[in-house]
Amino acid sequence: MRVGFIQNDPVFGSVRHNLDAALEILSGMQADLVVLPELFATGYQFTGPEEARDLGEPIPGGPTTEALIEAARANRQFLVAGLPEIDEGIVYNSAVIVGPEGYVGKYRKAHLFDTEKEVFQPGNLPLKVFDLGGVRVGVMICFDWRFPETARVLALQGAEIIAHPANLVLAHCPQAMITRCLENRVFAITADRVGKEERVPGHALRFMGQSQVVDPDGNVLYRASIERPENHVIEIDPEQSRNKYLNPRNQLFEDRREDLYRID
Ligand code: ACM
């Protein structure tokens, strides 16, 4: 299976421009699954909920989702991409999952970071694993990495790959994702962005790139640069994540001591 990511540098609010740039790249990517960053076509730093509502789109049915569906059909790819979702006037920091047959599903970011709490509502959908052409893919968004339960719940549901759209501003995430993969013996594809936004004066954000693909043994198969937009495709065998044995005596999930994990 060929998996990849796009690491972009979107211009805030120029959705059509950012989307077209991504579509152009996708058409040249020979990949079965491509992950795009969190909020990949809008940019990240909304000044408030009104702005997010203006740029929010229904999932499915919005123009970004429709364009991604068209690309997925044309390129025979599955895509996971972050965008602001509006549903009954409420805006979520969401990811859409589409494929050659059209819309597959969505995920709403559960753990909002910092000022996102003033812009979005926290996700209210269960953590879910999607069957993408016979491969089980769980989705989480950026700061969800800081809560190990997120990846664990996806892995316990059978995720072989975790698709992780991100806009990273905290330095530890690329390394922490290695641990998430080791804890669960899963692959993870983190798609980040680069560049800087300072739409709120005095609150500059620098995004740290380093999009990456990590395997179930914690090997970083590829890590992108800190400052350049780029895209990358790599061959993986998802089957590798189905074996949860570390050695003949330790099976990661069977060895869990749920009896000791309870808090009374
Ligand atoms: C983040 O969750 N985008 C930092």
Can you describe what's shown?
The protein is of the alpha/beta class and 264 residues long. The protein has one domain: Carbon-nitrogen hydrolase (Nitrilase/N-carbamoyl-D-aminoacid amidohydrolase), CATH 3.60.110. The protein has six helices and 16 strands. The protein is globular. The chain starts with a strand and ends with a helix. Bound molecules: acetamide. Acetamide is lined by residues 38, 113, 142-143, 167, 169.
Outline:
By secondary structure, the chain is of the alpha/beta class.
> How much β-strand is present in the residues?
25-35%
What is the straight-line distance between the termini? 44 Å
Computed Rg? 18 Å
The CATH topology comes to Nitrilase/N-carbamoyl-D-aminoacid amidohydrolase
- Classify the secondary structure makeup into a structural class: alpha/beta
So what's the CATH class? Alpha Beta
